[in-house]
Amino acid sequence: MSSKFTAPLIFSSALALGAMGFVACGDDSNPSLPPSPTSSSSGPIVIPEPTVETAIVFTGLNAEVGSKNVKFYGTLSIDFGDSNTVADVSAARFTQVTFNVVKKGTLEPQGTAAFATPIDFANSFIQTVSLYETGVKSDLAEGYTECGDFELIITAVVDDGITEPSVSVERIPFTRPAMWCQEPESSSSEAPEVTGAPLTGFEVVINTKVEKCINIATKQAAETGDICFGYGESSNRLYSDTGVKFALYANRESGNPDIFYGKVLRPEIVKGSAETTDFLYRESALQETYPNFYSVNDQFFVGIRDTYDPYTNPNSGFYAFIVTDKGTKIDNDSNVKGMKVYVYATAQ
User: Fold this and answer.
1) What are the average pLDDT values for consecutive 10-residue runs of the chain, which has 348 residues?
2) DSSP one-letter code for 67
3) DSSP result, 285-333
4) Which keywords accompany this UniProt record (predicted)?
């Protein structure tokens, strides 16, 4: 017994979220094909009339909304068991599959939907179409003016060259989330201006073997602290016992490319007057240790605590420092250096 499918087909149940638009795939120049769905900026699209009997089977229709687009699932196949719609099984193939996205309950087009790679149905022998494998999707940011409920309309044509071509229309409902229609909180895309917080300058002399760290709170050398110099270790590293992260500050003065900011802000020149905004740095450059600090000359390092925020907490956890004198040997131990370090620090 042959099976028949009467058109228009009923809606398939679909897990739907998202939104789509109009894209046609197929050869409209073939006079045996029904006209492709059409649309204009001034009116709704026109969908071809489905045939009373059809060889086209839709299964597993579904939609899945992601953060940026909607992906469609389902399979279009041919029922070869109905001799009324397919006379030549070896010749029956899809000659057209088109997509339209419309606002639900209307035929007003919005958005676009398409195969990931266009399919030339006129010159291809295709008997099964998988929406998932062919990458049918819609970009939620393109072509939409509204949010809410939409439908993807699929129009398909199967022809074997003998019987009347089968034409079927099916729909996949989905929702374009309201987040795409929310007004931005601010009309300005620029970040708020950062106001510089004052920095207090002080000098510390450290012994890199015994008291090789700087305690910012006491402004003195200590065995452990916020800024530590591991001279004599395998990498002469710069590190912290309190979670401070470091970045080398090597920006050049915009007005004179031959002068480092580091030299301009040396204590003998600015005499302790500086602000956080004098030391621009990239947050992505911060690291827990800095190897071979001893090779760096006439440049500041920036030290940043997790508590520092240039907008909400600019007066805490910001340090900039420079080695002004790398010192000399002490007690004939090559791993011991008396170093002078000048530090700029916020109030906390």
Assistant:
1) 34 30 39 51 80 94 86 93 91 95 89 91 94 91 91 95 95 89 57 75 83 91 89 73 83 45 54 72 78 76 87 87 74 65 86
2) S
3) G-BS-BTTGGG--S-EEEEE-TT-BTTTBTTSSEEEEEEEE---EETTE
4) Lipoprotein, Signal
